[in-house]
């Protein structure tokens, strides 16, 4: 099922500049409406895009967010080898991917004041049930690229501090070679599933409709996330899940057709307990919530 009607293809950078397919002013105006009420904005090409603003209270997230508010700066991680601006301002990022439904709610707050950050752009991206990333299907399915096999089959990619899977020096020839972290990927295919961005409202909350991520060798189950304030990337981090839930989800199809998972939370070199999303059942799937405390003014506090 396709969901591109929800957000026309739009660059986050041009949206922030207010000169792209959908200007940020129009997006923010839509998000500032009544929670849960779709708003339609007109693009520079004359087409329309629908944006549905949401709030935690209106969506039954109050219990999940309760007790999760913390002013401790959220742990930063490598962005990994498969990040790029997906040009998708939307909440439903599933497209045609199969999997257990997962609604992701993220509250962004300032790490110094604990106040919600409004007008921040939150991006998330993750692999599908088979361990493959859109925009990098060949690279991440064992057909070459970073890590000599990529997430789908072979040795996992590396990138970031501290060494070990998912960290260390980027592999020769991979994105970001020569730097301490991975650089942005130039997409090698036109797929954009399981990638998207949303703009926070006055409550600092964004929501995405996706599927439970799959796994690949060398890494535990995770979702990548990035927070932008203005033109600055103020937080790059990852979100993980309780292993009991991972095990339950992976008993179902399409996950069950893959075996041999080799890395769990306690063996992952990036995992921290603070990265665990609070999850509860919702219909045939799950809803999860997490709070990001971001250094919005980038003063290291």
Automatic annotation (TrEMBL):
UniProt keyword Oxidoreductase, yes or no:
yes
Q: Which UniProt keywords apply?
A: Dioxygenase, Oxidoreductase
- Compositional bias per record (Gly residues), positions renumbered to this chain: 142-153
The cross-references to InterPro entries, in alphabetical order and at most eight, read:
Intradiol_dOase_core
Name any one GO molecular function.
Answer: oxidoreductase activity, acting on single donors with incorporation of molecular oxygen, incorporation of two atoms of oxygen
**Nucleotide-binding as UniProt keyword:** no
User: Which positions make up the signal peptide?
Assistant: none
Where in this protein does the record put region Disordered?
137-188
State what protein this is by name: Protocatechuate 3,4-dioxygenase beta subunit
